[in-house]
Design a protein that fits this description.
single chain; 544 residues; alpha/beta; Glucose Oxidase, domain 1; Enzyme I, Chain A, domain 2; eight-stranded mixed β-sheet; eight-stranded parallel beta barrel; 22 helices; binds phosphoenolpyruvate; binds magnesium ion
Amino acid sequence: MRDENTSRTFSGKPISPGLGQGWTFTYRKDLRRFDEFYDIEASNIEAELKRFELAVAEVSRDLKDLANRVREEIDANLSAVFHAHIAMVNDTSLKAEVKKKIREEQVSAGSAINMIFRLWERRFSSMEAEIAREKADDIHDLTQRLVLSLAGVRAHELEARLSPGAVLVTSRLMPSDTIFLTGRKASAVVLETGGKASHAALFAREMGLPCVAGIKGIVDAVPSGKPALVDADAGNVIINPDQNEKKNFQEKCQRKDQVRLKARAHSHEPATTKSGKVISVFANVGQREDVCEAIKNGADGIGLYRVENIYLGRQEPADYACLLKEIWKTLAPAKGLPVYVRLLDIGADKPFPFKKKQRESNPSLGRRGIRFLHEYPELLQTQLDVLLQLTSDFDLHVLVPMVTLPSDIQSVKEHMSDAASRTKTRAMPKLGAMIETPAAALSAPAITVHADFLSFGTNDLTQYTFAADRENIAVDAYFDDAHDVIFRLLRIVRDDAPQIPLSICGELASRPEAISKILNCGITTLSVAPPSIPKVKEAVRHCN
Ligand code: PEP
Ligand code: MG
């Protein structure tokens, strides 16, 4: 028999990088311990239907609070998950199915929810598409919430029992679990299931929480209270590490810290190549905290401000005053530095709560980015008016997302000129096109007629070049943003439009090993996540 204190190593998929250590907290979500599953008498049907309605109302309220907390503490993009949950739990056909079960089979609300929701969960989890499997997670999460609400349990177990710095071990991370992990309440997370593009991965990466997934059976194998080392760079988890393993892990932590410290020490100096060329290293941001972190890390400017956060999770689109206030507040710490604000890039994987869009069978190839703004010119107009106003306070540049045809950027330029004459704005911001489709890369000369600069969105450029959904783990092998094909497209743009300033704001720019190749393609500006600035500047300094 295995001694329960001997060292054991488990291997899984790294879905959010980093190193973490602590005592395990094994979190089981077994609803059977709640006495909510039973048959009822005909005379109790009405009372049970009422309990179900009350549970739905309570869960909807809790989800609304949760969405607000996530919006404030993590990211407005992610709070959209909870708005989707509210819609799902109030879905009329799903509710009708549960009520029918209570009435016809004379079972408790708990039993009916369990049967109907589990059925839907199984349907979704057997589907191929990653997005369908995520929906299965969402339904599982809702089943938990409803049954807990019926049982009168309000406090979340993680809130009540997770001790600071613990390594959380659980089968899968539900969106509603994640709020209890903010502020590094856990040092790492180990999961039985979950892909790179799952909600769990998204949350963990946003929070800088190391996470390894795909270790089947770990919940049964590892009880709470065991020492654990989690290497989410390599995908390994060691339970009950021996002296040697502890020593190796500490050394790895120290090496990482040293690299980080060394890069930090020079992060406020310019990134100059060995041949003396200065490369601007900017930051990609979504909210004010990112801008503050970027400045702390030595950003030379803000290379991509994704304004989607201001819009997502709102019932109505942001109006002029609100947009002006939000953008001003976010960018204020970067006053005096160049800032690049991207027009709203909504559609595809970024949900849009306040316009009833017609369903599209393939949203990534549908109306997203500038295509969407052309359809709702009032949204474009408000943004341009705000950006023109901000030009008097900031060194402002405007980025147009998903430019595919030269006319996409030409029309924005015309709208901007009209807005400038209307508002009597004298200084016009510089206008740039995001190069995110092969068609845009191959028509650079025609696009540059209307643009002052180009910025490669290599995340989408890779997705559209390789026909591989950036969210779908099943086609991960096709999604290679450092492939020669991508560099070939960069070089084509450089050769076809040699005068125009070029930058990259996709994930590729944050890979130290890719920097030299990127600079060889004539790119003079890199824009990366704030924590990556020091290491990217350091990588530039090693280039010839
Ligand atoms: C990109 O596509 O590379 C990009 C920077 O835009 P986003 O990731 O917001 O789509
Ligand atoms: Mg993009």
